[in-house]
Design brief:
The complex is a heterodimer.
Chain A (H helix, E strand, L loop, with lengths): L1 E4 L9 H10 L1 H12 L11 E6 L16 E5 L10 E2 L21 E6 L1 H8 L18 E10 L9 H14 L5 H13 L3 H20 L10 E9 L3 E9 L6 H21 L2 E9 L3 E4 L1 H6 L8 H15 L5 E9 L8 H15 L2 E7 L12 H9 L6 E6 L5 H9 L11
Parallel strand pairs in A: 8-9, 8-11, 11-12, 12-13
Antiparallel strand pairs in A: 2-5, 6-7, 9-10
Helix pairs in contact in A: 5-6, 9-10, 10-11
Chain B lengths: L3 H7 L9 H18 L7 E6 L1 H9 L10 H15 L8 E4 L4 E6 L4 H21 L1 H6 L5 H19 L1 H13 L16 H22 L7 H7 L2 H8 L6 H8 L5 H22 L1 H21 L5 H14 L15 H17 L3 H6 L9 H11 L2 H8 L2 H7 L2 E5 L7 E5 L6 H11 L2 H4 L3 E6 L7 E6 L8 H15 L3 E6 L5 E7 L7
Parallel strand pairs in B: 1-3, 7-8
Antiparallel strand pairs in B: 2-3, 4-5, 6-7, 8-9
The chains are: A alpha/beta, B alpha/beta.
Amino acid sequence: MHIVDRRLNPRGKSLENRQRFLRRAKSAVQQAVKRSLQSRNIRDVLDGGEITLPIDGLTEPGFRRGEGGISDQILPGNRAFVEGDIIPRPPGRSGGRPKEAGEGDGEDGFRFVLTREEFLDVFLDDLELPDLAKRRLTETEEESPVRAGYSVSGSPSNLAVGRTTRMAMMRRIALRRPRIQEIEALRREIEECEDDEKRGALEAKLKALTEKSRRIPYIDPLDVRYRRFETEPKPVAKAVMFCLMDVSGSMSEHMKDLAKRFYLLLYLFLSQRYKKVEIVFIRHTDKAEEVDEETFFYGPATGGTLVSSALAAMRAIVAARFDPAEWNIYAAQASDGDNSYSDGTMTGQLLRHEILPLCQYFAYIEVGEEDSDSSVSRSPLWTLYEGIRSEQVPLSMRKVCQRNEIFPVFHELFQKRDAQSKVAP
Amino acid sequence: MTTTAMSKERLLFNGSDWDFPTLQGIHDACEEIALGELGLDVYPNQIEVITSEQMLDAYSSTGMPLFYRHWSFGKHFAHHEAFYRRGMRDLAYEIVINSSPCISYLMEENSATMQTLVIAHAAFGHNHFFKNNYLFQLWTDADGILDYLNFAKAYIARCEERYGEVEVERTLDAAHALMSHGVHRHAGKTKVDLRDEERREQERRVHEEQVFNDLWRTVPTGKKRTAADVGLEKRRLALGLPQDNILYFLEKSAPRLQPWQREILRIVRHVAQYFHPQRQTKVMNEGTATYVHYRIMNRLHERGQISDGNFLEFLKSHANVVFQPNYDDRRFSGFNPYALGFAMMQDIERIVTAPTEEDRAWFPDIAGRGDAMSVLRDIWADYRDESFINQFLSPNLIRQWRLFHLYDDPEQEEGILVSAIHDERGYRRIRRQLSREYDIGWIDPGIDIVDVDLAGDRRLLLRHNVTNDWFLQEADTKLVLQHLANLWGYDVLLQEIDSSNEVVKEHTASPRKPIQ
């Protein structure tokens, strides 16, 4: 008999088959991924995870029997019936036979788990981030050494003396190496000893001890330890994403939902491109505050609308925490377009002279009610931003009313472009 | 019972940990009992320790260690994995391959007791069954299968390089759709020799191309005469019609297939054929293996080689394996082949060793023969599920399981008829009906290729003989016929025929784009 250990065989034997399957199911997977996004938190989306695919298109057909025929069946466990009994059919089953083995295996929707990479690849297929990196930052990462425990090999310069002596001492104690003082004491005793017989015994003991201490060295190569370093990549391409949202009374749940979808897409997209992405949520009514995600989307708030307050808050946060020299700054603003008339000038000033120069990209989406027609209305904010928009500034804007417009709009904003074409539409 | 002090010495393992020497010891102990005491006859064993991920892999490619690439295996992998991850389903404890040497997979997570159970079950129970059952002897080639699969994998990979993944995938998809109708159901050919298959592949290809050219040559002047001459019978004879092995027919006679496509059909057909005996012997195969592991584990315990605690652990898994819920239990999903098979094997043992009057009347040949193992070994060799149940399901077991027969005719408004129960009048009817449920010829729709209009539009004609009003499922049939038409290269017509020989339903398909 042979026993073979196959555990170390190359893993992922089915990887190729899996990829083929994904390729085959591409459009279904894309649909499913989009669907699954609706029910998740922004950060959760990154974990990839389970999606459900419709089974059609992925079926492997075969000649099978349909329904409606005469069926005979043997079943175990009769307690009450005698021959000739008529049992009423269970409701909802059209003359069919009871369920057979394997039929109920969730074949109606086909579930499986996508890895994070697969998930994002499908999702962000053919999108590109405008103006990806700061010009002065190199694309390569810096690496810096970080202490990472001890190792038994290394260069002399990394010798960890303290650790080595500690190891040596542990070994000496464990193996009972005679201490130097012990031997010294014995020697003195021999010198002072008068009795020959006793001296002989002591000398034998001394001999044994010295031999033992020779066998068990004070420091053994086994004890030597070196400091170990690992290089840790230091992210230089960092991005921060500002989500600005108007939460004043005029914003309905539907509008907020649209906004969430947009932020989610942007976050996904950014985190695919950057090692590290921070998110800052700023909501505003007539004053702005930085909040967590939960509050941002679901916390109640009422009040007027002053867009400039949000922009000012963003400016302050950038100044305090995100040095533009180090961070790529993205901002996405969602609003229904309302703004106080008195605030127009202020907002324009802030955006043009303070915010846009900081940003890699500033996206403004104007959300509307589901049934409204976005193309006709011209809101105060839209008019204002349109005035600022030009070839030179990284500002783009779109109107969205329907859920299903979000992805196309996002897609449009970030689709791959020729190198020379500008970000602004 | 031996004393504890003595048995300590003999224990194969302690607790649940194991290592490779332990496995060796377990195997040797099982072998001693299996061969020495039970008189089993097995292929050499090879035991492979794998991880759970590898187990999932193996599942997805129908349990084979090496297989060609196809998206559907990826789909199955994803499917199984999703179930497994959500904890909805355990992995099977074992997979065993009908090959020589017989390969059994053990999962590394299993406890020592489970490894013993799996070795007894797979490496001896299944192994013996594979080697001795007549269906496996007739239809499978244990020596050649691994080499053949290796060849198949390489061949298909080569085709992908040469003709493109898409083309190969189309062919494989089509072949898979017809796989259930790609087996020879009736013996009559000599045993397959897969090694030979592989060797002759090249040679055959050249030869077949010529045959095809000849068969399909259309000489303008002779055309009319051919049509008149070749009568229906002659034509069918020349093509070997009627033919129920659709893949075989296409491989031999489809006019527009490339040689490599024929080879792919052939590969899929061989794989289908290889698994065909397994489909027909589920109850017997699992019953045999379960019976064998039960005997071996009990003996090991008697001999003091397994501790009481570990034996209890075994009994618990064993009880899970042979659990049969009743029809009104939420967990019921048909008969559990392990349970039914094991119960029948034990029942046979009882009939052979301690028969009642009833048993003597029902089973005069085996009742009271005394040597259970020799009777079982003969049964394992000579039967398949259908004939096995038809022959050996005893009144005793029918009563014990309280089996009953439901007859459901949709025409009957009132409901379902209980047409037999576990009493004198019912035994034979229940036995006959249950055995029919395991008859592949009865379960699978019977579809034959009956004619080709060679002189005309070359339309392929198939017939489905409808039994008990079970028509083919519409949507699936359409898809399969499409695949069939694509392979055939011309129109395809499938007629469904009821018992009075009337065509009740027709399905047609035209090749979307002839496979080039």
